[in-house]
Design brief:
about 140 residues; alpha+beta; two-stranded antiparallel ribbon; 2 helices; about 45% helix; about 20% strand
């Protein structure tokens, strides 16, 4: 792997983790959304990552080219039912279907995504410093 390949790997991680943070923020913003355009309560979303493969010189592929977003998926768990007979979205028994989003889990996911983003930014900065030092050596 060349030095500039590491820039791409870190950049792919930054992009993927940024999307993950956006999805987590969207989940938290919709924790009480009982009605969507599709009908029913909001469904928690999550990002599925996959490795990004790089083509080798002999036509095959090998690992180590970063990460990519394979899918943006919706959780299929049952909604949380809360008894609120006066709510406009209550069913005939008085229950309202709320998204099955656990705020604590979302916050933990947000912290891990933030840490992964920071790690990728640090790796990118280190690769930049190495490239700069190599250029300085070349000037001597």
């Amino acid at each position: 792997m060349n030095l500039f390949g590491s820039f791409g790997i870190s950049a792919s991680g930054l992009t993927a983790e940024r999307l993950r943070l956006d999805v987590i923020a969207n989940n938290l913003a919709n924790v009480s959304t009982t009605r969507t355009a599709k009908g029913g309560p909001f469904r928690r979303q999550y990002v599925v990552f996959a490795e990004r493969l790089r083509n080798s010189h002999d036509g095959g592929q090998y690992r180590g080219a970063g990460v990519r977003v394979a899918a943006l998926a919706e959780e299929q768990s049952q909604p949380r039912l809360v008894y609120k007979p006066d709510h406009p979205d209550a069913d005939e028994k008085g229950y309202v279907a709320y998204p099955n989003i656990n705020i604590t889990n979302e916050m933990v996911d947000m912290i891990t995504a933030t840490r992964a983003y920071q790690a990728n930014a640090t790796a990118l900065e280190a690769a930049k410093d190495i490239a700069q030092k190599a250029l300085e050596i070349g000037r001597l």
